[in-house]
Design brief:
- The complex is a heterodimer.
- Chain A is α+β, with helices and mostly antiparallel strands.
- The longest helix of chain A has 12 residues.
- Chain A is globular, with a radius of gyration of 12 Å.
- The N and C termini of chain A lie far apart (38 Å).
- By secondary structure, chain B is of the alpha/beta class.
- Chain B is 32% helix and 14% strand.
- Chain B is built from 5 helices and 5 strands; from the N terminus they run βαβααβαβαβ.
- A 5-stranded parallel beta sheet of chain B has the order 4-3-2-1-5, with helices on both faces.
- Classes of the chains: A alpha+beta, B alpha/beta.
- Chains A and B meet through helix 1 and helix 2 of A and helix 1 of B.
Chain lengths: 86, 171
């Protein structure tokens, strides 16, 4: 468990949804984000932790913090990489 | 093929990871339970920056038909995983019952409907291909299909898609 290190630009509440809900919601926020934004995803799905970390690694973005709250998890992702339209 | 160029523009592929970055799934089943897995994987793959293709063949076409996409069913017959003796599945109304049960539990999980998942997948850049002989077998034209369908292709195009460095699955 870590302490929050950044003030989120966007909070995405995916609590109650199961895979692929949290990643789909995160991706939607990512598409509307700018470089430097911090997206904070709230999830109850236990798969969200490993899946978001994998997503970040794969997409070249950065997980800043994983915070366990009572009954859900907050995952902060800093957007450092966005592709350009091809 | 023009549609092949469409891919989620926001995500670059990650060549440094040296992993396959393309997902090609054959969707061959027209039942409600078998409609979810390809769409879940496709949506996730697109979110990971993969180029994703769904190839619908045989009863999988029912997932693309305007007439049937809203009424996919799950049958207890021949499905030993269902919580009832298999023989009871033969009784009229059991398919409707099993379908209602599944829809209810998916709804409770806040799982989107198949139509919603198709829309999300399409918005994320997933390609939808319908298999040409299956269309003919079911006497369908492109007008019978939902607008998310990119094109009608044959086995050659599918094999060409799959023969690049892709993850391929048959569901």
């Amino acid at each position: 468990m870590q302490v929050p290190v950044a003030k989120p630009t966007t909070v995405v509440d995916s609590r109650g949804t199961m895979c692929p809900g949290p990643i789909t919601d995160l991706f939607r926020a990512f598409r509307n984000s700018s470089i430097g934004d911090v997206i904070e995803l709230w999830a109850t799905d236990p798969a969200a932790k490993p899946d978001v970390q994998t997503w970040a690694k794969r997409s070249g973005n950065e997980v800043l913090a994983i915070i366990d709250e009572n009954g859900y998890t907050k995952i902060q992702v800093r957007i450092v990489k966005k592709g350009t339209a091809r | 093929m023009q549609t092949l160029a469409r891919q989620t523009p926001e995500l670059e592929t990650s060549p440094h990871l040296d992993k396959r970055n393309k997902l090609v799934i054959v969707c061959s089943k027209g039942s409600l339970d078998m409609a979810y897995p390809p769409l879940m994987l496709a949506t996730t793959g697109a979110a990971m920056g993969m180029e994703v293709h769904l190839y619908f063949t045989f009863w999988g076409i029912n997932m693309l038909r305007k007439k049937t996409v809203e009424s996919l069913k799950i049958s207890p017959v021949g499905n030993p995983a269902m919580p009832m003796p298999n023989i009871l599945g033969m009784i009229p109304g059991m398919t409707r019952l099993a379908t209602r049960m599944m829809r209810k539990s998916m709804d409770k999980m806040k799982m989107p409907t198949i139509q919603e998942m198709i829309k999300t997948a399409h918005d994320s850049g997933v390609h939808f291909h319908a298999c040409s002989p299956s269309m003919q077998m079911m006497n369908l034209t492109k007008d019978d299909l939902i607008p998310e369908v990119d094109d009608i292709i044959g086995a050659t195009t599918y094999l060409d898609l799959a023969s690049e460095d892709a993850i391929t699955l048959f569901i």
